[in-house]
Design the sequence.
């Protein structure tokens, strides 16, 4: 894509046009868009340019100087969500010491959270709820057998 700042490709370029192109190339070099060896090659093209088309070849694939460079947005980030089951599993695991019934619910809710939506943000809550619930169930099994 050629820059939009030159009149027509066949128009003759003046000395100040070539100097303006060289200054623009230096700006692009300072911004990190081109390397030092490429800068010297492009400056050589710009200084030897007879027409604006020749200047365009020196400025190919560079944005016009003075215009803000807008970063290209990537694909939208997948917003992670909580389905609430993992947090419920953690709470049931925490309150499993009452009688063991919440611990059974904690295991069920934790497994449902992991199986139902594996990429949700409450995966850690679900695992912690399962572990706490299993510990309470093991404690009740040891105490009452």
Sequence:
């Amino acid at each position: 894509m050629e820059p939009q700042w030159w009149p027509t490709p066949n128009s003759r370029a003046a000395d100040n046009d070539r100097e303006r192109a060289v200054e623009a190339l230096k700006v692009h070099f300072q911004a990190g868009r081109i390397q030092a060896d490429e800068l010297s090659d492009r400056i050589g093209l710009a200084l030897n340019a007879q027409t604006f088309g020749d200047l365009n070849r020196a400025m190919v694939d560079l944005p016009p100087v003075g215009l803000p460079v807008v970063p290209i947005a990537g694909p939208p980030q997948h917003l992670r969500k909580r389905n609430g089951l993992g947090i419920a599993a953690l709470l049931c695991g925490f309150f499993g010491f009452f009688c063991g019934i919440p611990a059974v619910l904690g295991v069920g809710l934790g497994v449902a959270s992991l199986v139902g939506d594996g990429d949700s943000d409450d995966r850690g809550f679900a695992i912690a709820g399962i572990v706490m619930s299993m510990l309470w169930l093991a404690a009740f099994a040891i105490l009452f057998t």
Notes: The longest helix spans residues 123-143. Residues 25 and 31 are 10 Å apart (CA to CA). The chain has a mean pLDDT of 81. The chain has two domains: 1-72, 85-140.
